[in-house]
Amino acid sequence: MSTQIDRLTELAKEDTKRQFYSIAHMITPEALYAAFRGLRKKASAGVDGVRYEEYEKDAARNIQTLHERLKNGKYQAQPLRRVYIPKENGKQRPISIPALEDKIVQKAVVEILNAIYEQDFLDCSYGFRPGRGQHQALDEVGRVICTRPTGWVLEIDVTAYFDTIVREHLMEMIEKRVRDGSVLRLIRKWIQVGVIDEGRLLVSETGTGQGQTISPLLANIYLHFVLDEWFENEVKPRLKGAAYEIRFADDAVLCFQYKEDAEKVMEVLPKRFAKYGLTIHPEKTRLLEFGRYAEENAKRQGKKPATFDFLGFSVLQKYADMEVT
Questions:
Q1: Looking at the predicted structure, is the pLDDT value of residue 146 above 90?
Q2: Model-level pTM?
């Protein structure tokens, strides 16, 4: 499996336009077993009620049976199980839990797709990627603010991102690289499954089914096309000064040298997102002065220096008060 993944990585890196028509054969019993072993053992059960320990008792036979169903086209994705957990503000957060075998197959497919898309994703993206995480994203924000000519920051908030992804747009994006019908059918099954909520099956027309193992990758693919590539290839070449993007899933900040550049992007950003069914939150998306001279300018106006939030942390003005190189 590792040899096949390595070869897939080489081919994807070698030609960024290459389309892959035959990758489903890589979903082998061995790949499925490895995926099973990579799951959290204490995770809650889905609608099937099957837990890791129970499945593990006869894992070899269970995996073989699952593989046969996949090979014969008899595999069916099961609805997600909706549960609610309390939030600090007294409200409840909905969590969707997939069935165990859906987790296994999705994890195996993610391993294959990562070999392709890790060659496409840009360095500005940090969320749910191998070897990347929140700490690296926060470090990059600090690096840009402290060592690059940053004067303005655009804090982006997407309303209900995972639930509003337009599935047809998503599939068109995936098909730019993946043309294997078996894999595409699997992805369609997963994004179209409903949710069992208090005994009722709820089905939506949009979204990726947040909570599924494959959802973070699909969400990254979507914003890779909607935001990352667009900002890098179409927006930045038209700007007067320097600009930088740091994104973790749907949490993103854009840093600009000049206010006029930031204002131009802020004006076109809602139109760009709306084209793909996404809505920029009008209050949580905001432009603020943030850089070497921001604190001094704020004091002259009798205001406090601005701060912005990223990944649950407030970024303070003091981090910008360093010599720009």
A1: no
A2: 0.92
